[in-house]
Fold:
Amino acid sequence: MKYKILVGFIIILLLSNIYFFLNFYKKKKHASIKYETSLVQPNYNNNSKEFTYAVPSYEIISEMKKVKTNAQYLKSYALQNNCNLNYAFVLDMRIPSYKKRFFVYNLKNDSIINSGLVAHGTGSETFKGQLVFSNTPDSRCTSLGKYKIGISYKGIYGFSYKLQGLDSTNNKAFERAIVLHGHNCVPNNEINNFPICFSYGCPMVSTKFLQTLKLYIAKQGKTPILLSIIY
Structure:
């Protein structure tokens, strides 16, 4: 009888230890996942009083005219500053993130030849239908202005391109580690009326679209492609 009680006690003790170990591991794993995703995808809820998302208003024809005007300005700048005269990238942040707003522009033909989704910085999102921008370190905001596409490297988000800010509004890009990179949280196709995930200020695209951009950047040679973020 004493033997059976002892065996039963040992079994209960073992099961308790297993239960607490599994519960601890589950909590630890959940906390890790939450931390990683919070880098790029804050927990917004359209029905929440804390985060009510106002859909941005924009007029697509006006935005396309603005993109074209900016591309023409980039062509003029490229001609005077030994930059690429074939392609330029124009990112119009007035267009909401769930719509394609990263445009590959053919400067020779004066036309858009490709487009994709791009995330903005979590610090730029107000959830009130408008964005804010900053060049301040640790602001996690997108910075407006012209950039040169720099060298490629493999960083925390995989294959990436360094960006050199050319204006007073983005000249801390190196200090802030603002780069062009991909992330699998960015969709390949447009979605409906909700912002996609956020970056820490980098122009972040889908991993698939980054592969497309690599084809153009590979042709830049010693004349870097210009990337412009407008609003």
Observations:
- The first strand starts at residue 87 and ends at 92.
- DSSP finds four helices and nine strands in the chain.
- Residues 60-230 form a domain with the L,D-transpeptidase catalytic domain-like fold (CATH 2.40.440.10).
